[in-house]
Design brief:
This protein is mainly α and about 280 residues long. Helices cover about 65% and strands about 5% of the residues.
């Protein structure tokens, strides 16, 4: 029976167009239909890639009509669907550092001010681009409104703001190379291994510039520092540069061993940390 109902839902999804508003009435069916409805809505978004919205999920509570002067109340169960959306968004943010779903949901929250929504939006955009310079500016701006997040009454803000606060406080590092290393470590913890390699390489180049009192934002100085790192065989620069280039340029190489490249990252980070923290 569940297979039949599932197949029916899939057929219904074929008729739904992008931009449609869908209303579900689950009063007259098996009790499992409510759960099936929630699952198939998620199936429509995730697998079918449909872009519709749920206007309501209604249930007629006939069982309480006797205690309600014969009137059957109709309740909207959409709140449970909304809760699932928040769960997905919070999970993506907490475990992978992706704030895009949160940003979309926050846009619907009428009790949030523009600056509160904007901090999550800028957090997501800067991380997506991995723009290290812009991220440092974001950290400086975000510090000014951290008290607002800490004292906010919105329950969702209370739930997710500790992660934003922890990120801002962790990244509030003045020395450029240490900031970049912390960012690389954060990307690693959030399983974004490609950006870990990219940012780790840049952190080591920046550190070499700092050691030689060179302007780390100057292209010629960075190129010279790259050559020095390569020629001086600073661990683990050569290895991570090779892997980083394989990833960035999609080139064929003996370094392409995905499982090993991921498992070795922790060691590379530890070795790079010694260099970053050296005088």
């Amino acid at each position: 029976m569940s297979f039949f109902v599932g197949a029916l839902y899939i057929q219904i999804l074929d008729y739904i167009k992008d931009g449609d508003i869908v209303y579900l009435d689950i009063s007259h069916a098996f009790r499992s239909l409510a759960l099936m409805s929630f699952l198939m809505v998620q199936f429509g978004f995730g697998v079918k890639n449909k872009k519709f919205t749920i206007g309501g999920i209604y249930y007629g509570m006939l069982e309480v009509a006797g205690d309600n002067k014969g009137v059957t109340p109709i309740v909207d169960l959409k709140i449970f669907y909304d809760l699932m959306e928040w769960i997905k968004a919070i999970d993506a943010f907490k475990n992978y550092g992706h704030a895009d779903l949160l940003v979309k949901l926050f846009e619907k929250e009428v009790d949030l001010q523009h600056q509160e929504k904007e901090i999550f939006n800028m957090f997501d955009l800067n991380l997506s681009l991995a723009n290290m310079s812009a991220l440092q500016k974001f950290i400086e701006n975000a510090k000014r409104i951290l008290p607002i997040l800490k004292q906010h009454n919105n329950p969702i803000i209370k739930l997710v703001s500790p992660d934003i606060i922890a990120f801002v406080e962790r990244m509030d590092v003045k020395q450029q190379s240490k900031f970049q290393f912390e960012l690389a470590s954060w990307f690693y913890e959030n399983k974004n291994y490609a950006l870990t390699y990219t940012v780790l390489v840049e952190a080591m180049v920046t550190k070499e510039c700092e050691i030689k009192n060179l302007d780390s934002t100057n292209k010629e100085h960075r190129e010279a520092s790259k050559n020095d790192l390569w020629n001086n065989k600073i661990k683990p620069y050569k290895k991570i540069v090779g892997i980083r280039n394989d990833i960035a340029h999609q080139r064929k190489s003996d370094n392409i061993n995905t499982k090993k490249n991921v498992s070795d990252l922790e060691t590379y980070l530890l070795e790079a940390k010694k260099f970053i923290n050296s005088n």
